[in-house]
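Ex. 9. Protein: ABC transporter ATP-binding protein.
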Amino acid sequence: MHGIVRSFNTGTPEELVVIPGVDFVMDEGDFTAIVGASGSGKSTLMNIIGLLDRPNAGSYLFQGTDVLDVDDDELARYRSQNIGFVFQNFNLIGRINARKNVEMPMMYAGVSKKQRRERAEELLEMVGMADRMNHQPNQLSGGQKQRVAVARALANHPNLLLADEPTGALDSATGRMIMDMFHDLHENKGVSIVFITHNPDLADECQKTMHMVDGRFVDSSQAVG
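Predicted structure tokens for ABC transporter ATP-binding protein:
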């Protein structure tokens, strides 16, 4: 990503520039943390990285594809095939069980019923949730919900996993378990990860840490406080 700008109410007296122009480069297989306080612009940048939002200016090549030069339908297909998301508040669908939550991205991608069930069961076993696959989200603890969310994020074999404050709603012990899972995915499964956090200790565990202040990347000395 080069020269990415994101502003709201553009061209009006109320214009708010959240990201004034940043570069972000990541190699396949990296585990990169973007750390910053609330309001620093990190979640806005994540939405652009994840193709959930478009910048006002700048360029973005994802594995050589100019993803800003396609229409919204094509962008949605590209996102579904290449990017998985894990959010702070899990974003599971409450009325269906864990297995069907994991199946959902595959259903939208046109995977057959048999294949998506097998893939969902395989992923839930991988994250230690095989014995809870028929439970609905309201029957699961926070850590269990997040493990289901990680399995769902991996459903379509994404090239990139985006994790936005994935331990923020969890107690420290459960957060540690989820962080260990990310390390396992990176080290043993080769998953590329962007890890968004306000916690510098968790960020320090990642391969590379980038500090964001007021929509810009700064060195660590400028990020203190």
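Check your answer against this statement. The chain has one domain: 27-217.
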